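Researcher: Hi, I'm a grad student and pretty new to this. My advisor asked me to get structures for two proteins we've been looking at. I'm not sure of the right format, so I'll just paste the first sequence and hope you can take it from there.
Model: That works fine. Here's the first sequence with its structure tokens right after it:
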Amino acid sequence: MAGVRKLDLEESLELGPNWRHACHALLYAPDPGLLFGRIPLRYAVLMQMRFDGRLGFPGGFVTLQNESLEDGLNRELGEELGDAAAAFRVERADHRSSRTVSDRCVVTHFYVKRLTLEQLAAVEIGAPHAKDHGLEVLGLVRVPLYTLRDGVGGLPAFMENTFIGTAREQLLEALQDLGLLKSGSVLRL
């Protein structure tokens, strides 16, 4: 994406008042399940289908004059994911990266929050009752963290979808940095 630059959180907060801030979170949980009784799932990672047909992470714009980045993100999570989002709180320590999108004067802040599988399942169950479900959010989806024998099915096929903004890059960085992919697996994208 042209005009995108990574910067540290402190630097991003010093940008002028013309910059808008958007916060999004990758929610994940260890998952001991097996697909078809033989393919280890290892982790459940949530993304959402947005109103524009693109995949992204829950969250949205925050107003720094009225709230902190994390307060705004947690408000957005409640609106998009429903009451189950109240069972956890995304904190400053969960922050992973910030990027500017200079042609739009937007700073995106990316957070990663580890949940229990029970918390994650509660989010999935409650999301259809959230305020923004059917409007901004069309549904949640789990990212397949495996590659099928054909070398295409699973994560490689998932990555062929259309993602909003830097969500694709954020997903790949998080999967790598957190070690969520099977050791030694090569993602050919």
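Researcher: Oh nice, that was easy. Here's the second one.
Model: And its structure:
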Amino acid sequence: MRQTHPSQSPGGRRWLRLIALLVLVLSGAVSGWTWWAEAHSSEERALRTLVQDRLEDWMPEAMSPSRDDWYGLKHLSDATPSSLPRILLVHGLDEPGTIWEALIPALQEQHCDLWELHYPNDQGIDRSTAYLAKLWGQLPDSHPIILIGHSMGGLVIRDFVTAWRHPVGETPRVTGASVAGAILVGTPNHGSDWARLRIWLELREHLIVNEDRQFSLLAALRDGTGAAKIDLRPESDFLNQLNARPWPSDIPIRLIGGVLVDPTPAMTESLATISEQTGSDALEQVVAAWWSTLGEDLGDGVVTVDSLRLPNAPPPILLSASHRGMLKRLLPSDPEPPAVPVILDILKAWQRDRQPDRLSSSSD
């Protein structure tokens, strides 16, 4: 007797049609949302912000950053009387907490009074800035503070300085310690198109578990509803407003960026994987050839060199490194990341140039 394959039976064909229809509906919904969001970024941001507001109204305790020990100001080391000023580290978008692993011990060796900010960075950048402003009074005000930011953290720093602590020609919205300088590493001052792919960063952030942060279903929502990726797009409303505000002329600022001259080891491995999984050496060769033509247009792989630059700021210090590779080792045996000694040199130069009265006082 001839056996009928399940997929050839009437019931099997109905299930296949239903699955195919479901796939088409989901694909259409995703495509429709993507098309609408790309054409209506302001409306998308407002919708995401509204969702976050409603979640905070409905579940104030569960959505509060205080429920997660990850968030807040972390005091990492005390300074000696002759040390560098206080330093506050501000991470970037969807950071799992490893970006400062090489810089922190280097700063501790210099006896810095070192602090680190963890904030709900998937919300609108202005909200993250307001969170920093809310915590600013927890920092001692006996010495000014140098702010060091990676990636989007540099935008939080710029927004805080120009809109909250030292707005040019306006009364500060927050008092306490003054800002002595800012170092921005890989900061997309004019946006980054890679923000559209931030879902992979979100997965990295919440699947890397450490003693400070355990995975939970609410962790991603507590971190925000995705408004940050809209703020990071080139010509976003947030960036246009931020770039229209002047940086205070008496606060030094330095920019550090990466340029990928050659693919990183991880990228080289990925290129080899393309060949293995597709069975096409030609595809690997095409991708490698495309890579070699990008130059400074690619920058560090996330932020272009043009996006680093700011008017009235020194030109960026360019390093041969990837976006995270400027500050983080890929392997424990790797050499010191190239941005670490550059940051130390900048801090030492500022320490030499700073007047004694500036070190011992803070402005209102």
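Researcher: Is there anything I should tell my advisor about the second?
Model: You could mention this: The chain is about 45% helix and 10% strand.
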